[in-house]
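The protein record filed here.
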Amino acid sequence: MTTALIYDPIFQEHHVPDHHPERPQRTEMVMKYLDALNWMDREGLVHLKPRAVTLDELAAVHDRAYIQEVEHISQQAAHMNGIRQLNVDTYVSAKSYEAAIKAAGAPLTALDALMRGEINNAYCLVRPPGHHAVSESAFGFCIFNNIAVAARYAIDHYGFERVMIIDYDVHHGNGTQEMFYDDPRVLYFSVHQAAPFFPGTGMSDELGEGEAVGTNINVPLPPDAGFEIYEPIFRQIMMPAADRFKPQLILVSAGYDAHWKETKAETGLQNPGMLLSTAGFAKLNEIILHLADLLCEGRVIMVQEGGYDLESNACCAVTSINQLLGDDAAVDGAGPAPTVPYHINTDVLIGELRRIHKLTGYRMKSAPKPDIAKLRREREGPAASATEPTTSTTTSDSSSCCQDQPDE
């Protein structure tokens, strides 16, 4: 297994005002963790410098006038040796434009290496993040929509007909949804904290337009949702939807701000948030990677989005890189999430989501058949061994557990 880490020190040169949550230490801390773990020279991990996205590649999803505006304001910041405000929550400094075009170019670098057969998958450790940026403006700390640029590049340059974007950042990727809302070639799946939480978009009835109806799937959740809520959503909504769509490439908007350690002091946004742990994110990644193996020959590119608590963000990022390399261990300095004294009825939630997205009764066609003998042993105990047939079809635990579940 060969995994590319796409990173450039230029990302540290995108400066923001003091106390802004999207600060250079976010990517710096991830690199320090990788170094402390002695993973920088790890077998199977290759380091690639991102190329700058071209103007035409960027203009496939962004207005040219806006691109020029970002470059111009960044030049102004250089002349005044300071920081300029791009919009209400997003800023640029002297080298922000250079950082932004390399952040957008990072998943393209990964995809080029993937298509040349040099790597199996990739992690793009980038900033500024991207999934809030819309065609004509910055938004939510994001300048250019890195993952949207990658999806369009995969379609336009390599001829992919079906690309899936999985977004588990705590904030809905409003920009990504907007850019592909009427494009049936892109399946966008987002699980996020529900409005009025920022950015206030991502309702479950936003399904896409025209020929793309059914290729936009939003799962808005109440605060304090943890892995026990996320897991059935991934297995019973995301997986069958992906199986129905048959993606040729999976892109992941890897934002870790649904971690339980994220606080109002760190994000400057509404509190409370979600209750995923590092181990919980790892299990969600495991589902995604297994799905990629089933549907698209393991082609996965993860692109850093949010995550503002420095420790938990770094732990989640290095854990994701470890998983891409084929290891299942989580690097976790925070431990399990706290518990809450109430329960969200996942059966009702899943049933309604399956109805909305026309998944009721859908059975995954790509999943291997279950190991009947193993299921019998688990149900009946050791006595079942005496009556088992001598030949049977076997599958791994990870394959059988990812079968779609019947509706209630």
